[in-house]
Amino acid sequence: MAINRRNFLRSSAVALAGSYLFKPDIQGSSKGNDSIETIGSADDEQWWKFLKSQFSLKEDLYYFNNGSLGPSPEYVIDKTEKYRRTLDSFPSRYMWGGWEKDKEEVRIRVSEYFDTDREEIALIHNTSEGMNLFARSFDLKAGDEIILANHEHRTGVVPYEYYCKPLGVKLVRPVLPLLPKSADEIVDIYRRAISEKTRIISMVHMTNTNGMILPVKEISSIAREKGIILCVDGAQAVGMIKFRISDLGCDYYAASGHKWLFGPKGSGILYASRDKQELLKPLMVSSKWDNINIRMFEDYNTRNLPELLGMGAAFDFNNMIGQDRKQARIYSLKKYFRDQVDGDNRFKIKTPEPDDLSAGIQAVEVKGRVVTEARDYLLSNYNIDCRPMYSHDLNALRISLSVFNTREDIDYLIVALREFADK
Ligand SMILES: Cc1ncc(COP(=O)(O)O)c(C=O)c1O
Q: 8-55+322-422 has which CATH code?
């Protein structure tokens, strides 16, 4: 059963979703006459503390590393565990057929979240699977070109190196600025990289390096006009920023369930627009290979159904928070963090400031210090986990700001950063 959002917000959801959604302290956080809109607003710190309590992160851990991997809330952990137990109560039934309807319900949840047709959504294992699927699919020949800007994640590059380069296909690698002033600056770089020979553009929606949001929609319209296929890696964007795939206009989109959506580890999403599905060649084929429809990209016989169904619970959890609310909170944390670091000459923020260019990932360099030392100091002295980034001249800590990070957590992080910088 899906979580009832209204009841969650009123924190009286015991009957609907289980006692883990009920914590007496949230009762105190919301004054009786608060409207549903004010409860859990971006600044209702009590409510976000309550939300944090729904996760089972180690008590003394300060986790600023959602960009690497997200924690699942108790709700998702419990649901997934239940699916595992159900599967093992009658393995042959549940693995092959018993959960068909449940699987379709997850597909519907995902398609509603992205505002797409459910026949365009496949339930896969991770973003890497989607990127591999794209790279191996297109019939390219020597001389064709693929645009892969320099901030692509390795998982968006390696498959093209493996499948396409040996055919004599050229990988064109335009260089993006770390701190663009506007999205147009990025669009121009892509426009200049396109040639008569460009067949594919593959791009991240949000870079994992410094959290820069790329203008997929604008590049998509250029690609369509020129008959170029556009594949998008949405590993960092999905669950963090609000968008509709239908608005982006790309041909393909791959994303992870286990980062900003808080889904089980090894759950992912593939979007393939209806008119481009027949170009894709499944990574594995099984008995229904000739039944051309979106399910052919997820039908691997025995597979991780509890995780896949658990991803449905993660969508329920996200819907309960609400995409608007979640995004507003993340932008509010971004501002709170940047206000304390920007202008302090001990630090340099290496993520563009405008909200259309960044959100919950901020890269910060401690000037004159090696990033690995900073990271080790934070972890060993303060139990703060974040990701050190060395590539692209970053030498910066990648700070992920998610809905389970409170302002107090950020204050604690700032104290640690300052102490390290002054050492
Ligand atoms: C931009 C980007 N793409 C792809 C991936 C790989 O994601 P997955 O482990 O879901 O395949 C990551 C992981 O950090 C990422 O940041």
A: 3.90.1150.10
> What number of other Cβ atoms are within 10 A of residue 411's Cβ?
13
Counting Cα atoms < 13 Å in the Cβ hemisphere of 40 gives 24
Burial class from Cβ neighbours inside 10 Å (0-12, 13-18, 19+) for residue 153 reads middle
Q: Is the pTM of this model over 0.90?
A: yes
Mean pLDDT in residue range 334-350: 97
Question: Ligand 1 centre and the CA of 244: distance in Å?
Answer: 20
Q: Is 204 in the pocket of ligand 1 (CB under 6 A)?
A: yes
Query: Where does CATH 3.90.1150.10 sit in the chain?
Result: 8-55+322-422
Distance 131 CA to ligand 1 centre (A): 10
> In this predicted model, what pLDDT tens digit does every residue of 72-91 receive, in sequence order?
999 999 999 999 999 999 99
The reported pLDDT for the residue numbered 28 is: 34
CATH topology of domain 79-318: Aspartate Aminotransferase; domain 2 (3.40.640)
For CATH 3.40.640.10, the residue range(s) in the chain are: 79-318
The residue assigned the tokens 């309960």 is 320
Ligand 1: which of 133, 208, 283 to mutate, most ligand atoms within 8 Å of CB?
208
pLDDT at res. 13? 37
